[in-house]
Amino acid sequence: MKRTYLDKQLVEIFIAEHLFYSKDYERALEPNLRLGGRMYALLDLDPALKFTERAEICAEKTGDKGMLATTLKQKGLVLQSMLRFEDAVDAYKKSIDIDREIGDREAEATTLHQIGKVFRDTNRFREALEYYNESLAINREMGNRAGEAATLHQIGTVYQLTNQFEEALEYYNESLTASREMEDEAGEANSNSEEELEDRMPSTPEAN
């Protein structure tokens, strides 16, 4: 008899829970993290948090710092979706501490960017800019043009939301340039919102 998707998921849940409660933390880590990520993608947030926190415990027990940082990032995403913003930022900051300890600069930049999004979405714009600029500096240092373009765009959105249209256009244009240079069509389409912004800007009086 052919197994359905639901049957397979129930088996995965059983295995993940069995390994966790058997304290086989090394083998339990990945299935619990994977289930947490899958539940998050389905917006089934309570189970997503449960499995992700189990993965976090497994990573702590096994001393796997890289995986611990990964579980904390996923935990932050789940908490952010649950609108538990302070808890999300706390998880992200713990992840960044580990990234810095193990020298994972790319992961650090990504998580700084994500904290910036939390602060932007909660109208804490000054703090959002601080974290975006930290992320931007690391991406530029690493030559990560995709990360640079994405963060430049987000900085533009902060300035747009605070009605600083000239600054917003400057960052959107920088993002667009970076995207075009790496032929990132998706990024270019994203930054085309600058055209909409120009329509909203007050007209500049002509010189007499």
Automatic annotation (TrEMBL):
Pfam families the UniProt entry points to: TPR_12
Locations listed in the record: Cytoplasm
Biased composition (Acidic residues): 182-198
Primary location group: cytoplasm
Keywords from the named record: Cytoplasm, Repeat, TPR repeat
Ranges for the TPR repeats: 109-142, 149-182
GO cellular component: cell cortex
InterPro entries (UniProt xref): GPSM, TPR-like_helical_dom_sf, TPR_rpt
Keyword Repeat: yes
UniProt KW Signal keyword: no
Region (Disordered): 177-208
GO molecular function: G-protein alpha-subunit binding; GDP-dissociation inhibitor activity
Name of protein: Uncharacterized protein
Species the sequence originates in: Methanothrix harundinacea
